[in-house]
Amino acid sequence: MKLLKNQRYLKAIVILALTLFFLVSTSIFFTYTVLNNKLKQQLVDTNMELLRQVDHKLDHTLQYIDKLTIQLLKNDEVIRFFDYEMTEQEIKNNQMRINNLMTNAIQSMDNIFTIDMYSYTKQRLVSGNILSGDALANDLQWISQFEDYGGYYKWISFKRMIANRSEYPIYKNVVSLIRTYPLIHPVGSRKGAIAFNVKEDSLYSLIKKSAEEADDGQTFVIDKEGVVVLHSDKSKLGKDISEFPYIDRILNTSLSGGHFIAEAEQASSSVFYIHSSYTDWTMIRVVPQVQLTKPLAVFRNGLIILAAVLFVFVTVSAAFVGRWTLRPMNRFIQSMRGKLIKHEFKKDTDDFHYFEYVVQDILDDREQLHKQVLESKPLIKWRLMTELLAGKGNNQAVMRAYMERLKVSLFEDQFVVMSIEFDNKEQIASPQDLHLYAYALCNVAEELMNAESQGIAAELDNGKCAVIMSFEGEEDRGRHYLRAVATADLMKEFVREYFNRTITIGIGGPVQQLEDIHRSYKQSLEALSYKLVMGGNTIITLEDIVSDPSPQFYKLSAMTDGILASVKMLDAEKVQQQLQRWFEAIAENGVPSEMIMQLVVQCLMKAATVAADIGVDTSGVFPEQSLVEMLNQYERLEQLEQFTVTALQQLVNSIKEKRSYREKNDVIDKVMDYIQENYMRNDLSLNLIASEFHISVSHLSKLFKEQEECNFIDYLIDLRMGHAKRKLSDTEEKIRDIAEQAGYSNVNSFVRIFKKMTGLTPTEYRERNKTQ
Predict the structure, then answer these.
(1) Exposed (0-12), middle (13-18) or buried (19+): which is 740, by Cβ within 10 Å?
(2) Strand bridging mode 414-422 / 454-461
């Protein structure tokens, strides 16, 4: 009987084991089939994305070099070299200045080796090459080749240049950018050309840092003829490899990028390629199939081991079903009941059902926690940005904790803050669309910054975005700031091309400490506010708004206060008279054109701010393009004066129109009478007046601003200063007595405020009026 039971038990165990083996094998097979295909696609997508990023970085560097070339061609000395007839001495002097410009351009970017310039019409050459004779002619073959080239620029794929004159010469591998002068003149009418020779090894380092360290794959660049341009094996540079079947397949395809499997380097390999429309080069990445499928092999072996372990485990478990298994499982369930779950169950609840609920609850909690962490990241990022921009970055431990949670890192040598605002926001369909635009812009900004340095971007409110860009290295802070401006220009172009919208960017000054970021942010907001006069779709830096600190500038700038006062009083005739005297003073003092432009922009900016505070839309007064570009069109001071008069008179008319729609308020009329009678009281305040007329302070402040287009304090100060000016001009009373009559018990406060409002102390003001 016992033997029969054992046979039945053994038979049941075998049937159970076979059933479990079938189930485990089937599930492992389907899991491997599905996940294997998915993992293969992920590997292909990863390599293609890596190649796109490397190609984007290379194109960005080459386009920046092209931009340097265009800037050099616009220089006066270069224009004189190509266009002007000069004496021999003038030619030597001009070439010396051009050599200095070339040296500065080479020092501004480590990638540049030498620069050559040749005039077809004047037969002149300026070269950074140290050679002469036949060797120099060999390096300058591009001159004759490019003269009949149909395009405006061309990247020459590879050549070797000698770097010294020694007996044992050192050669430098370079690629060259050739551009015509003038920039867009066709064959037959171009006057010359310029060549930027770029170090091949420095360009390849961009590829090596990003791609070669990823795996054992090889990344290189060829031109449209199949000639190697960039490669880790320098012996292959300049060689034609178009005869290789996989290269021939790439050259003859019409696709801009793709992936296929072919024989490369006598091994089956995955070939990835991206074609650049800018250089007409193709970047190729070759990864051996053995290397590419290594993760798949690891995944397959892992599944096999897992299947074996599961099969052995379930078989052994089935053999010991009963008391040997139920006891520890029951103890485990009872332990989880007391420690993990506080819910109460009915006494007749099955322990296995309870165990199933506990495990499911743990999984649900984990998924919910992960979801909460992902949803809280934008809030944490916004909190980090607001803390830094508000000047609370001195608690670096808290800031670092935020950054670690967001996986954000910033260099600590220099920071620059940008404030970005979308132009014509009223044309965007809804606030949700504006938010999506801002979100996408922040992602693009971080991608562009992280390509060259490190940074973080976030939307603050109403579509406005703030960007913090950090740099590494203290030796070249000015160059870091130029990189920030260049990155801002890329953001602007990206939004224009992909969003079909425009943005205005204000850039603050550089700071060196994390806790000083708020200063750069404040400066960026100040720069952004100049959008009123500089126009939209612009990048505004501190250089565009910083005033000339000379006494002459301050004197002429102070004269604009009277003009603005006449604008507020809506006296268009007086505005014209004051502007006439102002421009006469500018002409008499021989003010340079740069200062004149700055003074006019500042005056119009102040007037626009006054009108905007009242609620006047200034978009119809100032042009949509940059105001500076508009002013630069005028060649005579009379034209500039007429433009300023017309603009301010339009503002006066707009303010009159705005006021005509407002109703007079009896309370404010009585308040104004009360202020006129009591402005000399030193305790006069908005609270006192609100108490006198039995209305709330906030309501009184709102009515006052709607009626007078300014706040109470500014109005009271103007009223008191007007009284003080009349007393100083018409009487010989003491300064202390005039201060008390104007409502100031402290004479020092009166003198400080008077000087801030007029630019003169009371004594200086009185003496100047006597002299006049």
Answers:
(1) middle
(2) unpaired
**Digit-coded pLDDT (tens) for 39-54:** 778 778 888 888 888 8
End-to-end CA distance of the chain: 135
Angle at 726 between CA 579 and CA 581, to 5 degrees: 15
CA dist 685 and 711 (Å) reads: 12
Residue keyed to tokens 């001071």: 637
Condensed to tens digits (0 to 9), the pLDDT of residues 522-576 reads 888 888 877 755 667 888 887 776 555 566 777 777 788 888 888 888 888 888 8
Q: Which of 155, 156, 151, 157 is nearest to 190 (CA)?
A: 151
Q: Compute how many other C-beta atoms are within 10 angstroms of the C-beta atom of residue 48.
A: 17
Find the farthest-apart pair of alpha carbons in the chain and give their distance in angstroms, rounded: 135
> Who's near 570: CB < 8 A, 6+ residues apart?
652, 655, 656, 659
Amino acid identity, residue 678? N
pTM over 0.70: no
Could you give the CA distance from residue 586 to residue 570 in angstroms, rounded to a whole number? Answer: 24
**CB contact at 8 A, 393 and 402:** no
pLDDT confidence of 713, banded at 50, 70, 90?
Answer: confident
**25's tokens:** 């094998």
Which residues are bridge partners to 417 per DSSP? 468
- Looking up tokens 């743990």 gives 362
Q: What are the φ/ψ torsions at residue 61 (nearest 5 degrees)?
A: -65, -45
By CB atoms closer than 10 A (0-12, 13-18, 19+), residue 447 is: middle
Query: Tokens standing for 24?
Result: 């485990």
507's enclosing H/E stretch is: strand 503-507
Cis? peptide before 551, omega within 30° of 0: no
Question: Quick check: helix, strand or coil at residue 17?
Answer: helix
The type of residue at 708 is E
